[in-house]
Amino acid sequence: MNNTFKILGFCILVIAGLKNVAADESYSSRALITATEEAILSSEISAKIISIPFQSGDRFKKNDTLVQFDCSLFETQTEVVKSEYESAIITLKNNTELAEMRSIGLYEVELAQSAVNKAEAELEIARLNTKRCTIDAPYDGRVAKVYVNEHESIERQQPLIEIIGSGILEAQLLVSSKWLSWLVKDYPIQILVDETKKTYDATIESIGANIDPVSQTIDITARFLENHESLLPGMSGTASF
Known about the structure:
Elements: H1 2-24, E1 28-34, E2 38-42, E3 47-51, E4 59-60, E5 65-69, H2 72-100, H3 106-131, E6 134-136, E7 141-146, E8 153-154, E9 159-165, E10 170-176, E11 188-193, E12 198-211, E13 217-224, E14 236-240
Antiparallel strand pairs: 1-10, 1-14, 2-9, 3-5, 3-8, 4-7, 5-6, 7-9, 10-13, 11-12, 11-14, 12-13
């Protein structure tokens, strides 16, 4: 009889333990949705803006022109430098022929070659500046914010437009470092987003390399399995593991 009660008591403890384990295995964390492609584009030249085809909220395609500058000055400079380059080529050819006839020395030929090299470099710079007269979209996406207006004159490195790519979004989470005993890349999770009241499937994309020594937490990144139109960067929610 005593053995029967012992066995029964042991079974009760095991069941209780299993219930406790099941309860402990329920994990959740807050999540912040972020874009995988996001950038603030600035100008590489000082110029006047003549066109900003897309405004905040507008969608664009890769290689669409986002900002266009007045390029008349740079185009004129390119033509001037091109003429100087062509003139240097003619001088080099003439000096080379004269050197072959021993009318001049090799020093004059070397000077002419140096002038050609310099003009060629200046022409390349002028052409690069002309290409910088437009800022094209590096990927498909939407305009988040426009910092300038048409007809404004801007300086180099001045922020112009902020864009967000239309690729699959990510979620940033902060979890306990103790989870590293079972948390691995590609681990499936679900994220209930506050703003949409919907749950979305995701997987762990990456796990941070450092643990915060004070809070004993670590950063992880999750990636949604699909591209959802209802999701926007900046939304937040709760991730369940």
